[in-house]
Amino acid sequence: MYVAGIDAHATYSVTCVVSKEGRLVSGPTRIKNADADQLSELLEAYRPLEVVVETSPAWPWLFDRLHGNGVHFVLAHAKRLRVIAGSNYKSDDIDAELLARMRLAGLIPEVHPKSVEQRGHAVLLRHRARLVRQRTQMVNRIHAQLHNAGLYLERGRMLTEGGREWVRSEAWPVLGEEQRLFIQMQWALIDHLTPMIRTLDHRVEHVGREIPAVALLETIPGIGPYRALLIATEILPIERFRTPAHLVSYAGLAPRYSQSGLRPIRHGSIPAGANRWLRGTFVRAVVSHTTHAPDSWLSHANERIKERLGWQVARVATARRLARAVHAMLRTGEVWNGEPETQEN
User: In this structure, are strands 2-8 and 49-54 parallel, antiparallel, or unpaired?
Assistant: First the structure.
């Protein structure tokens, strides 16, 4: 049994192979990414083999190239590899060998590598999210100009024709010439982005129809095609989360805690380093859910927590409950049950 550490870069990679006894048997070897066959030939003599690669833009092609045929691919969480990040003596050769030795010592924090299909879905979802974010920024810039003139328009109306008519009739006489030109250009950019977003929405619906888990998640009020596909892309296969608590932790919804000596456990805020796509989706889904299903058990739980601890804590705590429900649904294949909690159920 051998372990190969690969320090991957945009144009080349450095490989070191270590035996299970900890002896360096090959490398460090620098290979250009264009010569991928050379990398396969180098590793051929050491199979069965574990290959360790840090998360970076270069890992997907290495996974597709090396995974299988006697090679177990291990994707390492780059931010948690503090040994490499904090080393006083850092180079590609050292990093590659250290990855292999850390794997032998059981110190590699693993990340689940997404399949080719999931990576494609992630590109689609992130592309749509960025376009929506850009459009929102343009809407906010228009609101800022209105606020400078002492005017106010409800947030949801700015993307409607009625909202634009209000700006032309009420704000135009108050705004200066440069402000009017600025708003017109923001409208032009919004009109350019909106058809693109609509096209991506159709694509998301089309892709989601081919995934049974997406249809199951769409039975939850507040989770539509986009959120359902995002959740499925980030957490499937659900078997990799042994318990609901593992999914909650992966989504960054479990509060941090610390304990020292005989002191009691102290709970803090939710961690900054987590799957922000999944956490944001669960938290925003709570807002939509309480609007569309105010009588469900989840909405009732949100109200109870909000009365005691405030809406911010309640939103995250309710998102944790939603994540646990999603875990159960995907495990059992049962659709959403939003009946309010009673003495009987």
Answer: parallel
CA 291/CA 282 separation, integer angstroms: 15
Identify the structural domains of the chain with CATH numbers, from first to last: 2-111 (3.30.420.10), 116-210 (no CATH), 213-332 (no CATH)
Say what the alpha-carbon torsion angle 126, 129, 131, 134 is, to the nearest 10 degrees: -120
| C-alpha distances out from residue 32 to 12, 45, 148, 237, 298, Å | 4, 20, 55, 33, 53
State how far the Cα of 287 lies from the Cα of 281, in Å rounded to an integer. Answer: 10
Residue indicated by tokens 């925003």 = 284
Q: What are the residue ranges of helices labelled H in the chain?
A: 36-44, 59-66, 82-85, 92-104, 116-148, 161-166, 177-208, 212-217, 225-235, 244-250, 276-292, 297-309, 311-332
Q: Give bridge partners of residue 281 from the DSSP assignment.
A: none
| Structure confidence at residue 326 (pLDDT) | 96
Q: Are 66 and 48 in contact (CB under 8 A)?
A: no
3-state secondary structure of 42: helix
The reply to whether the predicted model has a pTM over 0.90 is: no
> In the prediction, which pLDDT does 343 show?
43
| Backbone angles phi and psi of 340, in degrees to 5 | -60, 150
